[in-house]
Amino acid sequence: DAEVVLLGRSNVGKSTLMRELTGHTFNTGQRPGVTRSPNHYDWTSEDFVLTDLPGFGFMKGVPEDVREDIKTDVVRYVESNAEKILVGILVVDGKSVIDIIDRHSGEDEIPHDVEMFHFLQDVGVSPVVAVNKMDKVDDEDDRLNDLAERLGMYPPWKQWQDTIAPISAKRGNIAALNEAVREHLHEANRDDL
Ligand code: GDP
């Protein structure tokens, strides 16, 4: 079966989004850093498996080496299953993502989100960035243009609606994400013909 994976830093709203996508209840706000193995679920109304991967990046009270291990596990999972993974949904927090990226951009530092985005591309998995918590963002277009630029796509972001999907998981506004993912799945089906 075709697979879609969900990945992102901790606290971006991954569990909330999983609940919206699958109808299952997940432990939102669960104790961070508790290494979870990948969870597989059926995406409502579509014919593929959705895999939830553990959150990575900074988590309060979780030592750096544990965080590194979690990220390594996520990368390994995607690498070893890249063949059947059609789309990687990278969930980010629209409210803070630009500040976090800029704070961690330096000569020998690549922000997690930027790194993961390029990693997905490198292993042949189409990235879709689910920009969550947009209900808390006022200057929507500016924010999304900034994000596009930092991920190496020329603004305006609207050119990239199959890659950048503004959502609010908590409010159930995830149409842009459904649309973007569907676009990639149909593309993949056409390639199979
Ligand atoms: P996870 O650690 O990535 O699984 O994140 P959770 O799903 O546990 O969500 C972390 C926090 O963000 C919780 O307090 C959620 O209620 C909140 N949250 C999730 N989605 C949204 C959203 O779309 N908008 C807002 N404002 N908050 C959200």
UniProtKB/TrEMBL annotation:
Gene it is expressed from: engB
An example molecular function term from Gene Ontology annotations: metal ion binding
UniProt key word Nucleotide-binding: yes
GO BP terms in the entry: cell division
Entry-linked NCBIfam families: PRK04213.1, small_GTP
Cross-referenced Pfam families: MMR_HSR1
Cofactor: Mg(2+)
Keyword Mitochondrion: no
Taxonomic source organism: Halapricum salinum
Name of this chain's protein: Probable GTP-binding protein EngB
Matching InterPro entries: G_ENGB_dom, GTP-bd, GTP-bd_ribosome_bio_YsxC, P-loop_NTPase, Small_GTP-bd
Family: Belongs to the TRAFAC class TrmE-Era-EngA-EngB-Septin-like GTPase superfamily. EngB GTPase family.
Limits of the EngB-type G domain: 1-187
UniProt-listed PANTHER family: ENGB-TYPE G DOMAIN-CONTAINING PROTEIN (PTHR11649:SF13), MSS1/TRME-RELATED GTP-BINDING PROTEIN (PTHR11649)
Job of this protein: Necessary for normal cell division and for the maintenance of normal septation.
Keyword vocabulary terms for this entry: Cell cycle, Cell division, GTP-binding, Magnesium, Metal-binding, Nucleotide-binding, Septation
HAMAP family: GTPase_EngB (MF_00321)
